[in-house]
Amino acid sequence: MGITTTRDGAIALVTIDHPPVNALPVRGWFDLARAVREAGEDQSVHVVVLRAEGRGFCAGVDIKELADDPDHTALVGVNRGCAAAFGAVYDCAVPVVAAVHGFCLGGGVGLVGSADVIIASDDATFGLPEVDRGALGAATHLARLVPQHLLRALYFTARTVGAQELHRHGSVLDVVTRDELDKAALAVAGEVAAKDARVIRAAKEALNGIDPQPVRRSYRFEQGFTYEMTLLGAGGEARQRFVQGDR
Fold first, then answer.
1. What SUPFAM superfamilies does this protein map onto (predicted)?
2. Stated pTM of the model
3. How many Cβ atoms sit within 10 Å of the Cβ of residue 179?
């Protein structure tokens, strides 16, 4: 359990496995960042597949860890950890294919929105419950998945959107059954892995270089408002309501 890396030829599979809902604590985000970064640095790896075990892809951060955080050390840690993990996916030297099933919430959207290709199962849902948790963040990454006005509606209401709708917007490449998800992700990864790795690595760097959105900077800007909400008391109150089950 935790974050593991396995190989399928030139494809590295980085797996999130943190029961019950893949809500990662501070250490988990840094472990994930390290795994993705190391996979990209390995010259024998041509593609990374980011996947998960369990009920869903990722439920974001471990709210219980944040709720029991009198000096805000965990809040600072998880914000830095998320930034590190999202940045590792975005900056990975090789393309990252995200294989998403079930729920993909909060930090899960940050990971997927940082990836290069998304394959989703037909039960996958995506959303940012940040407003309901007294925090802000990952709108930067949701903006890479949906149009602007839908982004705002989803953000303000904390609603989720399904894989089929993201497929219609073009952000999800393929929607498959859950049983076929790993196979479909590996098939796309295999297509990329078959190319000249020197060209693919250069292509990844080139595409990041022409990206109109300053992903790292805009996400850190968002995170500043999470600190404000904590200082105002709204953040702590929301996290306590979540832990107590009053959502």
1. ClpP/crotonase
2. 0.94
3. 8
